[in-house]
Predict the structure.
Amino acid sequence: MKKIFLLVSLLAINTQCFCWGFYAHKKINYYAVFLLPPQMLLFYKPHIDFITEHATDPDKRRYAVAAEGARHFIDIDHYGKYPFEELPHQWKDAVKKFGADTLASYGIVPWHIQTMLGRLTKAFKEKNFSSILKNSTEIGHYISDAHVPLHASENHNGQLTNQKGIHAFWESRVPELLAEKKFDFFIGKAVYIKDPQKFIWERVLESANAADSVLKFEKKLSMQFPGDKKFAFEKRNNLVIKQYSSDYTIAYDKMLNGMIERRMRQSIFAIASFWYTAWINAGQPDLSSLSKQSFSENDLKEFEKLNDDWKNNKAAKGREHE
Ligand SMILES: [Zn+2]
C-alpha cells in the first residue's frame, strides 16, 4: 500500500517539476562564485551559503505567485521550427506579434533573464547589499533553467511521446548520481558579455536543438534496456521510492556523451559572466564596504515565509520531494 502511494507521488513530482532539481541548482550557483575576479569574490565568497541555499527560491515561489511559472522556460517549438525565426528576440516586438498572454503561456525565460540583469545592475549601482545578493542568486536560477533542453520544448516532460518522468530524470537523477563523482567543474574565469540578449538566445537555441536528442536517446535506451532493470526501489530520506535505476541512469548519461555535464558547466560560466557584466556596467562599485552588512529583519521574514509557504503547500499536496 505504501509503495503504491509513493509511486503515485513520484509521478506527481515528475509532472510538476520543470526545473533543474534542487541539487543541481545549488551546485551551479555555488561553483559560479569561484569564476569571479577578486574584487567581487571578496563579497560573494562570504555569502556563498546564501547563494547556494537560495538558488531554489524561484521554484519555491511558483506555488505562491501565478506569474512565476512562465519565467522558467520557453516552449519555443510552439513558434515553428529551429531556429524559430518567427519569434522576435526583442520583447516589444514579440508582444506586438503574439501578445503578452501568449508569450506568458509558452514561457518567457530569455526575456526574464534580461529583466533580472537590469535589476542586478541597478542593485550594484545603488550598492544595495540585499538586492545584490537576492538578484545574483535568482538570476542564477533562471540562467541555468535556460540551459536545460526540456525547458525549451513543448514536450517538456515527454508527455507527448510516452516518456513521462524524463524531465526530472535528465536534470535531477543524473546530476544527483554523477555530478559529485564524475563531473568536472573547474571552469576558468567569468567574461564580460557585450550583448547579453544575443548570448542568452544562443543558449536557448542550443537547448531547443538538444531537446530532440534528450528525448530520442531515452526512447532508444528504453527499448534496448531490460524492462525490469529500468527502475529500482531505492531508499531516500527514510522513504522507499521508485526511480530510474543507477545502471539505466549511467547508460543514459553515456549515450548523451557528456551533455548534462556540459550544460551544467555552461550554466556556471554564464551565471558568473552575467554577475560580472552587471558589476562592470554599474561602474565596478567597490564591494568591500558591503562585506560587513547583513540582511534586514524584513528580508529574513520574507525568506522564512517563502520557505514556510512552500513547505505547507508541498505537505498539502502530499509531495515528498526536494
Ligand atoms: Zn526553475
